[in-house]
Design brief:
CATH class of the largest domain: Alpha Beta
Distance between the termini: 33 Å
Strand order of the largest sheet: 12-22-18-20
Strand content: 15-25%
Shape: elongated
CATH topology of the largest domain: Adenine-n6-DNA-methyltransferase TaqI, Chain A, domain 2
Largest sheet: 4 strands, antiparallel
Radius of gyration: 27 Å
Number of strands: 24
Length: 429
């Protein structure tokens, strides 16, 4: 069946684009003598006054900064002089799980040398708008070409010759400039919100440290905190059972009986969508559903995740616990604010204490015994102070969630605009 193309557009190797757009190879847009290539394979020892070497890990989660980077010897720098970077060059990850991540080289990395995991794409400013190319490299058209050209081995790899032959849409220069300008503005909005989210998280972490240890007291509260064991507060820890599941999530089916994954709890939060639909044969075997005002605790997990916990705000009768999650049942006389306790258990100090007491012969999986967890000592303020602290931290959580929602919407806006602008569905000029 032929594809219907509306007037003013044409069907090409990269999809439907405007009549006055062309299709070109990535190699056609490069500076003379600076082809797409990677760099140092064996970086050698760190040289304190050496040249920076750029690895994909240096930008995989935002620029790590000078202190986290490897520095090369003069000999290696000379051997790889043709793999040097200029400010404004584009780099792409071509080895490993992060294949396809794209960044623009900042001025402080002028003269740095590529590593094996990164490829340089030196766009000639006389041939194309660099930021337009950068955004196009993040588009579905390029993502598909990356996927199709990957070579599997110990790690997935995309070769530089293959990358050079990637094809892309090529609008008139004024269109490129306009598209890049709009997407750059949206990017700036996303980055600003990312920074604000990170700042709010740091503030919350510092506030937790002060309030949960008594270093800082809220107005109107004084007096000593009492040391109690977790077992003094908890009547019992209830686990679920393992059942067979099918790879169909709550996102697809709504309130269908589902078994929680261990990833449903993290940093004091409960994520009810982290679940799998229970196989019909096991529906009658399920026993324990999450109840409101309880804490779920991961009793068996990887070494860095064992002991993770999450506060449950409401009943979830259609969800069930696996045997690797405990649910707390508190003593009526304990005078415990469960939300406050969830913040305590998710604080770095207590997470470390729980992890350090986990056992197991496997390096990939650790366990916490009931006795170990119930013997955990906790400094307990009055019930009123617990509630006040929980309110302060909960309000901060609400502010953080609102910011994250704004940031996520901005990211969605960027993706939508990229799809429309980079295909010419929306014309700016």
């Amino acid at each position: 069946m032929s594809t219907q193309v509306r007037p003013g557009y044409k069907l090409t190797e990269v999809g439907v684009i405007p009549d006055n757009w062309e299709v070109c190879r990535l190699a056609d847009l490069l500076e003379e003598g600076r082809h797409i290539r990677y760099g140092v394979v064996q970086p050698g020892t760190f040289v304190s006054d050496g040249c920076f070497m750029l690895r994909s890990q240096d930008y995989s989660k935002g620029w790590s900064g000078e202190d986290g980077m490897h520095r090369l010897s003069k000999l290696l720098e000379a051997q790889f002089k043709n793999a040097k970077l200029n400010a404004g060059d584009i780099v792409m990850t071509v080895v490993g799980a992060g294949i396809g991540q794209v960044e623009v080289i900042p001025s402080w990395l002028e003269g740095a040398v590529l590593s094996r995991s990164t490829a340089r794409i030196a766009v000639d400013v006389h041939k194309s708008e660099k930021n337009f190319v950068k955004y196009y490299l993040e588009s579905p058209v390029i993502t598909k070409q990356l996927r199709d050209s990957q070579r599997e081995g110990a790690q997935p790899v995309v070769s530089c010759p293959d990358l050079s032959d990637f094809i892309m849409a090529y609008p008139p220069r004024l269109q490129q400039n306009a598209i890049a300008s709009v997407l750059t503005d949206i990017d700036a909005l996303v980055r600003g919100l990312d920074q604000l989210v990170a700042k709010k998280r740091d503030i919350k972490q510092a506030t937790m440290q002060k309030l949960l240890t008594g270093q800082q007291r809220l107005p109107g509260f004084s007096g000593e905190w009492k040391a109690r064991s977790f077992g003094d507060l908890v009547e019992r820890l209830e686990a679920g059972i393992s059942v067979n599941s099918v790879d169909e999530s709550l996102r697809q089916y709504g309130h269908v009986q589902s078994i929680l994954k261990t990833s449903a709890v993290s940093n004091g939060n409960f994520f009810p969508l982290e679940c799998k639909k229970i196989a019909p044969i096991d529906l009658k075997r399920t026993t324990t559903s999450p109840l409101s005002n309880t804490i779920l605790i991961s009793r068996m997990n990887t070494p860095d995740l064992v002991g993770e916990s999450g506060y449950v705000e409401q009943d979830y009768p259609w969800l069930f616990l696996p045997d690797r999650l405990w649910m707390t049942h508190f003593r009526k006389e304990s005078d415990i604010n469960v939300k406050w306790l969830s913040y305590v258990l998710s604080s770095p100090e207590y997470k470390l204490r729980i992890r350090s007491n986990a056992t197991g012969t496997s390096g990939s999986m650790k366990n916490i015994s009931k006795g170990t967890l119930l013997s955990l000592s906790i400094l307990l303020p009055s019930g009123a102070e617990q509630a006040a602290i929980a309110t302060v931290l909960s309000d901060m959580d609400s502010e953080l969630t609102a910011l994250e929602t704004r940031r996520d919407k901005a990211r969605q806006l960027k993706q939508g605009m990229m799809q429309e602008l980079l295909t010419g569905r929306i014309r700016l000029l």
